Structures are given as C-alpha cells and as structure tokens.
Task: structure prediction
Amino acid sequence: MNAPLLNISGLRVQYPTGDATLTAVDGVDLQVREGQRVGLVGESGSGKSTLAFVAARLLRSPGRATEGRVDFEGRDLLSLDEAGCNEIRGSRIAMVYQDPFTFLNPLIRVGNQVSETLQTHSRCSRSQARTQAVMMLERLGLRPGAVMARKHPHQLSGGQRQRVVIAMALIGRPRLLIADEPTTALDVTVQAQILRVLSGIIAELGTSLLLISHDLSVIRLMCEFIYVMYAGKMVEFGPAAELFTAPRHPYTQALLRASGHDVDANRRFFTIPGAPPDLRRPPEGCRFAHRCPHRMKICARSPALLPVGHAGSHAACWLHQPP
Amino acid sequence: MRAIGLYVVRRLAWAVLVCIAAATMTFLLIRLAPGNPVSILAGDQSTPEYQAALTRQLGLDQSLWVQLVKYFQQLGHGDLGYSFTYHTPVASVIEARAAPTLLLMGLTLAISVVVGIWVGVHTAVRRGSKLWGAVEGATLVGYSLPAFWLGQVLILIFGVQLGWFPTLGETSDLGATGFAHIADVTWHLALPAATLGTIEVALISRLTRSAMVEALGSDYMVAARGKGVSQRRLVYRHALRNALLPVVTVIGLELGWLVAGFVVVETVFSWPGLGSLTFAAIDARDYPVITGLFIVITVSVVLANLLTDLVYLMIDPRIRVD
Amino acid sequence: MTSVVSLAPPESQPQRFRGMRVFMVNKAAVIGLILLIILLLATLFAPLLTHYQPMRGFGRPLLPPSSVHLMGTDDLGRDVFTEVLYGERVSIIVGFLSSAIAFVVGVIAGSVAGYFGGAVDNIVMRITELFQVVPRIFLVIIMVALFGAHVEVTAIAIGITSWPPSARILRAEFLSRRESDYVMAARVIGASHWHVIVREILPNAISPMIVTATLNVATAVLLEASLAFLGLSDPNVSSLGRMLQGSVQFLQIAWWMSIFPGLVVVFIIVSINLIGDGLIDILNPKLRQ
Result:
C-alpha cells in the first residue's frame, strides 16, 4: 500500500478574533490517495474551505494552522517557508476557487494568466508557454483558443471564467487539485457543464482531486470517497456509494434528507432545527448533540471519536460505537 | 474603437464646458462684488479716459448679457484683458512667466510620482517593518505640512545655516550661458523642488499605499499565489498594476491642490513664474491678471485631467468595452 | 458560500461604545485628539497665558526667544507667542466654519442627487465635477480679494468650494440605500420625500460624511493660512498665515518668526488628520490594516 498523496493529520486552524480565538478546524484528519477523487462536504462555517486553503498554504492571515501536519508527497507543507511553498503551488498542488470573477486579475488577459503558471515553474520560453495556454483553453472548451486567450475576464461569462481558472490550475500538471466550491457561484445550467469538463480533464491528466462543497449532488457526481465535516470536526467518512445509501452520522443523514428536498406530511421542507455552535467556545461533547434527534446523555459529555485510518466507513457517533 | 472615440469627444466637450463655466464664474464674481466693476478692472490709479475706454470695450454700461457676449468674444481672440500694473496685455504677462513654472512643476511632478509610488509600495508591502512604519508616519506629517512653511524651514536649514543652495530666484549669474546656466538654474531649483516634492511624495505615497493594501487583499492575489508566483512578481505585476488605477484617478483630482502648492512655493522662493505673479497681482489687486491666471490655469488643469483620463483609458481594459 | 474569513465575530459586544473603543485603540488618533484639545485650550485661555495684547508692538523688534518673550518678537516689536495664541483663533474658526458650510451644501447636493437620480443627479454631478476641476485656491483668492478678507467671507469662500468630495460620498450612500426595504416600506405608507431623505436614509448614510467633514477642517486651515500668506487676511486680527508672510524677508536673522507660527499650523492640521484617520478606523476597518 503506497503512501497517500495528501495526508492531513490532527490539523487545527485558528483565527484570533477580538477577545476569543476561533477554532475553525479542530483536530481533523483527511487523506487523498494517488488518482483518487475525494469530496469534503459540510455547511457554511464547518471549516471545510479553511481546510482547503490551508492544504495549499493559501490561508489568509490572521488565520493560522496551530497544530498538526499536512503531508504532501511525504513532506509537511506546514513546515515549508514561502519559497518552498511557491515551488509546490501551481506545479504540484493547484487550486480552483469559488468565484471566478474575483479570483482572476481584471487587468490581465486570461491567456497570460494561464501561461503565468508555466512561466513560473518550467524552463519553457514565453511563446511556448503561450501556445500551451491556448491549447489548454481549447481543451477546456474555450474556442478559438487564440482569440479567447486575448480576452479579459470581464469579457467572459461565469462558466467561461471558471474554465480559465481550471486551465490556470491544471496547465502545470499538478498531482493534486483542490477545488473549493467550484460551481457554487455559477448558474445551475452551467454547473453540470463545468463539472463534466473538470471531470474529463483530471481523468485525462491523472490528477487527484479534493473537492469541497456544501452541495451533495455535486459531490455525488464527482467523488468516490467522502468526508463530512461539521463545526470544525470530521464526523463521518467513507466510500461514496456507502455514504449515500447508508449514512451513519445523524448529521449526514439530516444533510441528505435536506438536500433531497424531502417534504414531510405537511409539505414542509425538511430542515435541521437549531444552529451550529459558536466555534470560539465549542461545547465539550459532540458538537451536533443539541440538534440531534438521537441525542443520548453521553453525547453532551464527550464526543465520539473517529478511528485512526481512512479505510471503510466510520462515523464519530455514539450510536455506532461502544461508549 | 468607436466607443473610445465617443468617450474622448465627450470628455473634450466637457472640458470646454468647464472652461466656459470658469470664465463665467469670474465674470459674475467681478460684477457681484462690492464696488465698481470699472475700478476693479482698471485699478485705483486709472485715469478717467482709461476708465471710459474700458467701459466702452467691455460694455460695462450695458446689460449683463451684452457684457457676457463681449467678454467671450474677447476670450475667443485670446484677449485676457489688460494689466494696469504691468501696462501690457495680460496674455503677454502670463506668457512671459510661464516657462519657469512649467520647469518647476514638470520636474517636481515627474520625480515625485516615481518616488511616491516607490515609497507607497514599500509602506504597503512591509507593513510590519519599523522603518517603513516610521516612513508611513512621516508621510502623514509631510502631507499636512503647509508648503510655504516647509519652504521657509528648508531655506533656514539648507540655505541660511548650511549655505548649500541659493534661496532666491531662478538664476544668480545673469551672464552665464550653456552648461553654466543650466547648472545655475538647477541649483536654484533644488529647494523649491524639494519643498513641493516632499509634500507631493507624501500625498502620492499615501494614495499608492492605500490602493496597494486594497489590491494586496484581493482574491486574485490569492489565486496568483496559488500558482506559485514569486513575491516580487505578485507585488509589481499583479498588485501595483491594479493599484495604479485609483492612484491615477486621484492624482487627476488633486491637481487643484498642486496649483495651490506652486503658488505659495514660488512666492517663498521668489521663483519668477506664474505663482509669484499671482502674489504680485493680489498685492496690487490687479484683477485682470488674477482672473486671466485663473482662466489659464483652469484650462491647464482641465487639459491635465484629460491626459489622466486618457492614461486611465489605456491601462484599464474594462472601460474600453462601454 | 464560505469565504475564508467569513467567520466574523457575532455582534455580542455592546455596540454603543465599540466606536469609542476602536478609536481609543488607535493611539495616533488619541494623540491627535489630545493635541487638538491643547491647542484649543491654549487659544481659549490666551489672555491668561500672556499679558501682552495682540497686534500691539510693545517690545523691541526682532528679539530672539527669551524668558520674557517665549517665542521672541517680530519686526514690529510684537510678542510672537501672543500673536500665535490669538492667531490660532482665525485658523480654527475659519476651519470649522467652512467645513460646516461644506457639510451642509454637500449633504443637500449629495442627498438630492443620490435620492432622485436621473436628470437631477446628472446636473448636480456636473456641477460637482466643475467645482472639483477648477483650481480651488484661485477661486477663493478671487472671492476673498473682491469681497474683503474677513473671517466670514473666507469661511464662506472656502466652504462653497470644498463641498464636492463629501457630496459625492453621500450620493453614493444614497444611491445604494434608495432601494432598501425600509425605504420602500416608508414610501408605501405614504412618507414624503423629505421624510424619507431626512429621517430614514440620512441617519444611516451620514457617517462617511463625518470623516470628510473632519478632514475638511484640516484642508480649510491650510487654505486659510495660504491665503493669509498671500496677503489676504483681516489686517485687524492676528493671523498665523500673515505672520508667515512677514517672516520671509527676516529668515536670515529671525528664524523664530517663521518656525513657531508654522509649527502651530502644522500641529493643528496634523492633529485633525490623525483624528480623521481614527474615525476612518471606526467606520471602515477593512480599509486599514
């Protein structure tokens, strides 16, 4: 069994806020193997995007990873300095972002923004980089590539911009692509297109994928292995097929029901009552306890833990573990 | 392309309108002021004959509309009136004194923009550093300094105490020619340029700094970092490129401030340009010269604004589509 | 939609004093405030601090600073310290008065333009642009020279040429709030335009104007001093700017005539700029790092 490509262990990420410290990610483990497509699902504020940005060492201050390791290709990224990170970013790890409008430089032509990745890392000449950028744009459906390359971001539609962002990320042939809500800002009709394009190209290039989303249908379409995060903690993981047919954690179950647009007898949408806890003063026990329909006495006292390792399906819940 | 053409035409039309409005403003102010427009424009020492001639020429005994028409007819011919202190047409007085101001302003502006942007970038990027933090504090002070006082301070230190630079006028050696003359002028330029330049650098660096901070915090910077782009390239190719946009805009708006600057600085240093001319004209209450200067300078500022508009057009691709 | 820094602290802190606390944390702004208060007190208590009368030359001219004349005497034998203390008054009065005038005009122009939009907005914006492009100092020079260099005239002249930036800011605020729910609600129940502008939108939109009004005081003080320097000041009253004009020819022999009045002008302007910066911190902390 070869080592995983990305191995996050015991990661804790904190933001200082006024009087208290907010722990956005609290002791989380996650793995992505070579060629695997992993999904990370959770709602807003669960810490999933924070985790994504930390993995690429792109977290904006004042956020800081205070504990844990992010091992990529055997090296702990958290111990690297900025120069070391720059070597890896774009060439070995790349990111696709949520809002393709704000994540593209409005003043630079998209072709140049795509070729910039190559120029930063490889030994090829400027014209070679430009040619490759044009080819990549065409590969992603932006044709004619030469014409599209000369455009500026504001001249493109949302879907086209996101293809540019994908091109920018993949032109360096990274081994791991981290996609943070890549379709959330796009029209529903465009979402499926982009996902299809993305899926095609990472299959072609053999890139591993870590896809972050709150949208279960997106995750279901793209990923084979899934992690579920809630309030800064990992609550369940497992192969997609198993997770979707038989979710173990009550939160995952609730999420599935809510996203399936289940209606109850009174034709009301199913929602999860209550709200996530304040991450500046997290509760001692299970963080989902106060909203959980299966809450037991032990849940408020101490949280169930996930087993070490990333095989099979497991949930951090006393329902599935001996107390 | 057509969109750009339309834009330029619109800005030109607006420029013309502004100049007309400015001229009208002075026209109205003189007629609204206490006292007789004739004596205002002819001076206290004028003879009755001159006053009568002026009244006829400007139609001061006729209705306001007739006066306005005559006024713009005059302006159309480039006639800015007659200076009763210099006994020459205002236009020639201004023409004679324009060169030294252009020299001082042009040089100072060019150097200040380069230095100011450089300082602004560094105070934005090295926010933690003590040195650059102190520089940033210095820019706040520098930007608050009255130009005429700073000039006097520089005279005291560098002119009087240290004797490094001359403190008066444009030249000391009237007979010098060629290289010696250039050296002479340069030496005299030093202190007035330093005065104006210090304040301009403070202003431009503060503008650049705040624009840079905004740019550096943008999402596209994260994306660029995500490509592994080096710090240097991030700052100059990405952040500064975007930050220059608001800087150019605001420089265009601050030109009026620059005008105030050179008026008082030229007065302090007796630099023989339009600024010291303003001072002399105020002293003598030579309104034809004052209003003539106002119109000429307004036209210059308007042209400068047009220029910055065009520069902005060239560097921001987003406008070209509209 | 999660953004990396969307984990904002909930508004559980008492909002009332949050502004004050943010202001106090900004040490520079506090220094500015203290400085300004010292300057204000100094001029208020001028008769107590100096027994000389302003504008009267009692001593020998051109004396350097001493225990008798803290800042020396000028070319007419006047005690510089006295002149400075009383001269502050014109600067401060013109500064605040003109800023107030600019504020009022700016509020009217900005709210009308931003609320009604369309042709009205267009016209007001053109006028605003006009006043912004035209070189301000010349317009003020002409007005003050023609109408006399009295405090009121100077204040009005500076005020009616300084309103454009604040009008623009207020207009932007109005434009963005025009379509808000509470405005719609007010209009639906029949509130007049006046009511909506003054009672509904203005209280929420006014805060950036406060910052601009503060910074306007500084620019007005500078402008007034410049005018006085150029000879346009009330000859019967002590004036810092005029002192700086008179000092030019004596720079070689009487540095105190220039340094002290200038320093006071600088202190007034710097203190107000610092306070203004502090106010920006309260209102829009995202702009500062």
